[in-house]
Design a protein that fits this description.
The chain is an alpha+beta fold and 151 residues long. It has a single domain, classed as Winged helix-like DNA-binding domain superfamily/Winged helix DNA-binding domain (Arc Repressor Mutant, subunit A). It contains 6 helices and 5 strands. The strands form 2 sheets. The protein has a 3-stranded mixed beta sheet, with no helix packed on it. α2 packs across α3 and α3 crosses α4. It is globular, with a radius of gyration of 17 Å.
């Protein structure tokens, strides 16, 4: 479940950004971008490859990974590590992910939620935090409440 504001982007919007930044629009990139836009949640490279290969079996998983890497370098796609599983990919505004260790629900929250932490790390350690790269693990409201009842 994602609770961040939904920004309506089309595949053509993203491909235009790609062109503007000097990137080439290849068939693979078009297919990956379309699959990302069509996804109803954050997806793995394997999820994208499976969706694409339903209609284009010639597109290999390695092509999907290379395409995602290229799109990420251009700032069109971001990936996040959620727990012990594979990275998930998404388009849109940078945001932080909260993942319940009990049920796996993913909640998207605004990146500015961690501004105070970012500033503290910058001032005290000269460290620039990459918000959204790793999910914050914990328990969702219902599982935190269940745990409190058991204690």
């Amino acid at each position: 479940m994602c609770t961040a504001a939904i920004i309506m982007l089309t595949a053509e919007d993203l491909l235009d950004r790609l062109r503007t930044q000097g990137g080439r629009v290849t068939t693979a990139r078009r297919l990956v971008v379309s699959a990302l836009i069509g996804a109803t949640s954050h997806v793995t490279a394997e999820d994208l490859a499976a969706a694409i290969q339903e209609h284009h079996p010639e597109v290999h998983l390695s092509t999907v990974y290379r395409t995602l890497d290229s799109l990420e370098k251009l700032g069109i796609v971001e990936h996040t590590h959620v727990g012990h599983g594979p990275a998930v990919y998404h388009v849109g505004v940078t945001h932080q992910h909260l993942v319940c260790e009990e049920c796996g629900v993913m909640i998207d929250v605004p990146a500015d939620l961690l501004e105070d932490v970012q500033e503290l790390l910058r001032q005290q350690y000269g460290f620039e935090l990459h918000v959204g790269h790793f999910a914050l693990l914990g328990r969702c409201a219902s599982h935190a409440q269940m745990r409190a009842v058991r204690i």
